[in-house]
């Protein structure tokens, strides 16, 4: 092996904003058959915004804002931004509890309140009407969170996060290379499928709890080598488990540390470029 070829390859890629951490990555890239993507911040822009509120909008938003003020989740940021725009007075909340992959519970103005998905709501009644409205919104690629107060579901908030403008082209390039594409997300199946359809992703694995992402990678590895592309704290185990971990440069520190390749420009088209470049470099070394 000639270390020079490796240096040249990684040097050129670095100029393109593709950081390749070591030679092992290059070797694994040659045999990748499946590319798996996180959704939020990887395929989508990662700046969710509130689009619809069902129920008494002021009440729903007020309760949700009280709950989300202490949360750092991107959905919480979207809700707080909307509350600010609508000049909502955020109520005091206590006993805040974040429930991973599900939502948030707290005491708002002395009453038990919650905001989150249907996994959180397993014990509560959602009217058929609200459920149907939720499904419509999810089919429009909007993430739905229900808002509850004193054991009653009082409404829902729909939040949209658009795909990055280059995601579709990026997926098409990988597919034309014969690679299988998969989305792996904590979001709801309907929303995930709607976004996958917008960008052309083959398969969707949705409703995945943060701790389970790495296990899904292991399952996919039974069919061949897997590259995983992600940005979040909850993506770190999947990035390390995958044969090739690709982190977004805009991602959390732990994701960047866990990736063997880092895409500085956050452009998904760089996944294909990274694969192409690694192949070229690897063949030169051989
Ligand atoms: P991902 O990063 O893949 O989108 P998460 O595991 O962070 O997934 O979240 C999965 C789901 O859990 C969200 O789509 C939402 O329904 C719910 N959820 C998590 N945190 C919150 C929160 N702070 N407020 C409302 N819903 C939340
Ligand atoms: Mg993400």
UniProtKB/TrEMBL annotation:
Is Cell membrane found in the keyword set? Answer: yes
Q: Name one GO biological process term.
A: copper ion homeostasis
**A GO term for molecular function:** ATP binding
Q: Is Transmembrane helix among the key words of this record? A: yes
Localization = Cell membrane
Q: Which UniProt keywords apply?
A: ATP-binding, Cell membrane, Copper, Copper transport, Ion transport, Membrane, Metal-binding, Nucleotide-binding, Translocase, Transmembrane, Transmembrane helix, Transport
Q: Which family does it belong to?
A: Belongs to the cation transport ATPase (P-type) (TC 3.A.3) family. Type IB subfamily.
User: What name appears for this protein in its UniProt entry?
Assistant: P-type Cu(+) transporter
Q: Which residues of the full protein are shown?
A: 294 to 579 of 642
């Amino acid at each position: 092996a000639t270390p020079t070829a490796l240096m040249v390859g990684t040097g050129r890629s670095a100029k393109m904003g593709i950081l390749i951490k070591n030679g092992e990555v290059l070797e694994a890239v040659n045999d990748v058959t499946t590319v798996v993507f996180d959704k939020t911040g990887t395929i989508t822009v990662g700046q969710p915004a509130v689009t619809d509120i069902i129920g008494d909008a002021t009440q729903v938003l007020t309760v949700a804002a009280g709950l989300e003020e202490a949360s750092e989740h991107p959905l919480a940021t979207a809700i707080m931004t909307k509350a600010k725009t609508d000049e909502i007075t955020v109520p005091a909340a206590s006993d805040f509890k974040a429930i991973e992959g599900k939502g948030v519970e707290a005491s708002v103005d002395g009453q038990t309140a919650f905001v989150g998905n249907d996994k959180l709501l397993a014990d509560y009644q959602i009217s058929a009407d609200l459920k149907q409205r939720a499904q419509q919104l999810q089919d429009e690629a909007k993430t739905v969170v229900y808002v509850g107060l004193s054991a009653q579901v009082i409404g829902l908030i729909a939040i949209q996060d658009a795909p990055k403008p280059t995601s579709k082209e990026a997926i098409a390039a990988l597919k034309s290379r014969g690679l299988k594409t998969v989305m792996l997300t904590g979001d709801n199946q309907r929303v995930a499928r709607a976004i996958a359809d917008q960008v052309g992703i083959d398969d969707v694995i949705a409703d995945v709890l943060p701790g389970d992402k790495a296990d899904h990678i292991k399952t996919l590895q039974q069919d061949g080598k897997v590259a995983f592309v992600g940005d979040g704290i909850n993506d770190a185990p999947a990035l390390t488990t995958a044969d090739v971990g690709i982190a977004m440069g805009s991602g959390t520190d732990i994701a960047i540390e866990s990736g063997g390749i880092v895409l500085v420009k956050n452009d998904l088209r760089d996944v294909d470029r990274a694969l192409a470049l690694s192949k070229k470099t690897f063949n030169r070394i051989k």
